[in-house]
From TrEMBL:
GO terms for molecular function: ADP binding; ATP binding. This is Uncharacterized protein. One of its GO terms (biological process) is plant-type hypersensitive response. Residues 215-285 form the Disease resistance protein winged helix domain. GO terms for cellular component: cytoplasm. Keywords: ATP-binding, Cytoplasm, Hypersensitive response, Leucine-rich repeat, Nucleotide-binding, Plant defense, Repeat. Belongs to the disease resistance NB-LRR family. It comes from the Eukaryota. The keyword Amino-acid biosynthesis does not apply. It holds the Pfam family NB-ARC. Coiled coil: none annotated.
């Protein structure tokens, strides 16, 4: 990815030797101009190992760079306003200074909007790759590119949409009209341009896309985990059990091709290992999730201060970020189908027993978590995904979870023999855990098992 490419260049020894001062800052969506300048100043002063005196951070920053060769990188730039606000502190001594930003959805860019030719070239590359654009689509394509206002992310996202549509004048004109209409009536509202990608998203991909809004900003998600979650939620339209994960991976690749999801690292076999979302794309995702009452995202310990909309009567997902799990479960009741704890606190798991429709329980990032009550294994009969990363004893009653597909236990001393009596189990992941020896030497058949990781003291035949 481009951030990785820029970081590798930034840390290259030849680059280090070529500049007197280097500074790298990450510009989040709500980052103030003062914070950007302050972070730049702190980084540059560490680089020079000296103090700079002045009345303000702006003056200090200017003095630290004056007369020196400098390299400034502003990562994850989502709006060029940030550059307009800080450009005055960079002295122009014409001695080989470099300042650029990294747009994680596109390429490395100098601090400016793209002109019409650059916009069209990027859009054409996104849609056709190395192939030529049909001549009958070129004029329409240029209008679409112009309507994106020179913003690389908008161009890339619209390009991802166009590559999925039929290459006809009618379909392209419709997109051109939509883009131009937004620019004309909304003063170029960037989010409305991005929302076209959701409007044209096939219905089978929408829940997969909305699900991404449950993860925090700049959160890196393992694709294998994401696929298991989608499977557990029942988002895949297939009756062939063996193809479920394969189809989920196809859905994921489709979202990447549409530039709705960003690949952040790759496996040795070339497949995507981790992913994330651009800040603005995540904002769109969260907004659409709220409109559909698809998920509830809470970032406050007091459930009365939750800023997201309530879950509808059918119940959806509860994503907990630095909140009290027990209070939220009591507040939002038995309709919850999914609980993903990004960061949370739980003093008791008793209330979970009331969640009869719970399918996903991911408590990997939960603090102060007690042992699992045995009765949970009798009550959560619809549970398909269970993930824990704290020291816990798994009881033999776990076999009562007859619908469980994924079991991730990252801190466990042993697993009971009954683990092999779970016919729907597809993924069993642990960390150096022993399986209780079978005194009767009975054989068990897990026809759906696909992943077996971190186990010892057992035999497969």
């Amino acid at each position: 990815p481009n951030t990785t490419l820029a970081r590798n260049a930034y840390l290259d020894q030849l680059v280090i030797e070529s500049f007197d001062v280097r500074a790298w800052v990450t510009v989040s969506q709500d980052c103030s101009t003062q914070k950007i300048i302050h972070d730049l100043l702190i980084t540059s002063m560490k680089e020079m190992n000296t103090n700079i005196f002045g009345q303000s951070d702006e003056e200090k920053m200017y003095k630290s760079l004056k007369g020196r060769r400098y390299l400034i990188v502003m990562d994850d730039m989502w709006n060029t306003k940030a550059w307009d606000d800080v450009r005055g502190i960079f002295p122009d001594d014409d001695n080989g200074n470099v300042a650029f930003y990294v747009d994680s959805s596109s390429e490395l860019h100098e601090m400016c909007f793209m002109d019409e030719d650059e916009s069209w070239n990027l859009l054409r590359q996104k849609v056709f790759g190395n192939q030529d654009c049909p001549s009958e689509l070129e004029d329409i394509g240029k209008k679409i590119a112009k309507g994106c206002g020179g913003l690389p992310l908008a161009i890339v996202v619209i390009g991802g949409l166009l590559r999925t549509l039929s290459k006809t004048q009618a379909s392209w004109r419709q997109i051109a009209e939509n883009v131009n209409s937004i620019v004309a009536t909304q003063d170029g509202e960037f989010e409305e341009v991005l929302s076209l990608s959701y409007t044209h998203l096939p219905h089978h991909l929408r829940p997969c896309f909305l699900y991404m809004g449950g993860f925090p900003e700049d959160y890196e998600i393992h694709v294998s985990k994401l696929i298991r979650l989608w499977v557990a939620e029942g988002y895949l339209e297939t009756n062939v059990c063996e193809r479920t994960e394969e189809m989920a991976e196809e859905y994921f690749v489709d979202l990447v091709k549409r530039s709705l999801v960003l690949a952040t690292s790759w496996k040795s076999n070339g497949k995507i290992k981790t992913c994330s979302m651009h800040d603005l794309m995540r904002d769109l995702c969260v907004r659409k999730s709220h409109e559909a009452k698809f998920l509830l995202y809470t970032v406050d310990r007091d459930p009365l201060k939750v800023v997201s909309q309530s879950i509808n009567n059918k119940g959806r997902s509860l994503v907990i970020d630095n909140s009290d799990l027990n209070s939220l479960v009591k507040k939002y009741g038995s309709n919850i189908r999914t609980i993903i704890c990004v960061r949370s606190i739980a003093n008791s798991l008793g209330p979970l027993g009331n969640l009869r429709f719970l399918r996903v329980l991911d408590m990997v990032k939960t603090r102060s978590l007690p042992s699992l009550p045995p009765e949970l294994f009798d009550e959560l009969v619809l549970l398909r995904y269970l993930a824990l990363d704290y020291a816990v004893s798994i009881l033999t009653a776990i076999s009562n979870l007859s619908n469980l597909q994924s079991l991730i236990i990252l801190s466990c001393s042993y697993l009971p023999l009954n683990i092999w009596k779970m016919p729907q189990l597809r993924h069993l992941v642990s960390s150096s855990v022993d399986v209780v020896k079978n005194p009767l030497e009975t054989s068990y058949v897990l026809e759906n098992l696909q992943t077996l990781f971190g186990l010892s003291n057992f035999i497969c035949t």
